[in-house]
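ok so heres the complex, two chains, lmk if somethin looks off
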Amino acid sequence: MDMKRDYYEDIRLFNSGVVLFWTVALMLVLFTLPLYAPNYYVYLLNIIMVHIILAVGLNILVGSTGQISLGHAGFFAIGAYGTALLMAKLQIPFVVALLAAAFIAAFFGFILGLPALRLEGPYLAIASLGFGLTITHIIGGVDLFGGRMGVKVPPLDLGISQLGVSWVLKTDFQKYYLILIITILMVVGARNILKTRVGRSFVAIRDSDIAAEVIGVNLTIYKTLAFAVSAFYAGIAGGLFGFILGFFDPFTFNMILSIIFLVMVVVGGLGTVSGGIMGACLITYLQYDLLKNIGEVPYFGAFMVTISQLWFTTVGLENFSSMAIGLIMIGIIIFEPLGMFGIWIRMKKYWMTWPF
Amino acid sequence: MDYFKVEDLCISFGGLKAVNNVAFNVEKNSIFSIIGPNGSGKTTIFNMISGIYKPDLGRIVFAGENLVGLTPDRIARRGVARTFQNIELFSNATVMDNLLLGRHIHMKTGVFTGAFLWGRGSRAAREEIRNREIVEGIIDFLDLQSVRNHFVASLPYGKRKLVEVGRALAVEPKILLLDEPSAGMNTEEKQDLNIWIKDIQAECDVTILLIEHDMNMIMGISDRIFAINHGEKIMEGLPQEVQSHPEVIKAYLGEER
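and the predicted structre for the whole thing:
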């Protein structure tokens, strides 16, 4: 039954009927979800999808290429500011502005990739951290970018104003479908990149850069390319994120955000597309929903508030989510280094061999 | 005549002259073996040929072009592939992916063509299928079918050595550098390897440079042998000549007092 008859079967998107079935089912759910989910959850799903784009992109860099980045909030900011300002100041159509902003982010990714040719591990982490901080400081200091007052995002108009065509997406409900389609395209794109020549070269650099060079992989090109691709994803994510928020300032893209992004990738599973997706879903949900409202959970919530006030912070649950996410990260690293992806694989194995 | 030659090759690490004034000539489609005790500079010569080390002096000429100063990936594009003494595989990738990586310089798919792998007809898919066919041929040749989709990290040592040979073959090299391919293999595997190396020479139109400690193997398959000790040439010649040369015996077995 598992006999393969064709080389294409190794690289195609749906490698069995079961996968195809569940993918179609998932798509049906995703495309009908806003019809019955409360508006708040549609908003939350939008943010989750934006984070999925970013986490999948960051995973290409951190998981597949083995280069660390603590500056992805910087690329995220470039995407958000780029899209919003190109549309507001230059009246550029949405799709063009989003792509242009993402390419600007990719260019900065390439720039950050240059020192990465010489730096490794903690040194690279510090360099990228500095990059992330610098970007937000520069943006905060330039009036053209709105300075510290922030930027009000123009309406999300899919039409082309120069031609008089206008198709404004106002509600979260409408934006949901736009973001969903872009997310699917980006995720499938990432999967394809990792399945073909460029993705394999990234993995080669991670596993043994000497061997990679000896078989003809140009380290300079592919390392900077990994940064650029990853920054491109962050740029697209940032551009969409701006429209969900409607307003942002430099503090939206702080250092903690960069770290949260890294947590998503590590918790989800390094080096796999589905890992990035799972990590982004879990961490975003925890951060935006569960941990914010944990005080309302009966008994347990009140207990946590008491503990939190006693030992950790005077403001109750304000800092609770950062601490909880830190604990999750430590737990994952100790007990399940492959992340949620590893848990998923083990579950799959268990059910495939059940009842043995 | 001068298909591949090394001239006056010197390199030193600090005060140690690892390779000193080494020169040799390799004929096309021959098997040229380099022997010598541990630490005599054999692998250093390979590292200089493949561009990992830059020699202090000397030239490495392949098909009329000096390879010294080129980066390893450019040297690979000129048709020089190698294996490593201590196995440098991509251990978190499957055997298939490792061999496909060997096809890197023969493929063109970039980020954008790769990202738009939509269906069988797309450019990325067509190139992928074509190269998978070639790699499948190598898997067949080296008898790796049973571990085709295994992760390299989970393979036994002998198989990993083979995968590395396979990856070098996937590059379709004109010069193939094999650094102790039989180390860590049992007798049976060594015999197979012996046959494979001969087959590779016959079928792939490739010149092989071989570093090896197994004298049975060396004497059986080499066309010429180059003996080196302390970074300096002892002698070069036919297998029989090298075997009986007093300096070689001295380097390997020590001197009678």
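quick notes: The longest strand of chain A covers residues 151-152. thats all i got rn
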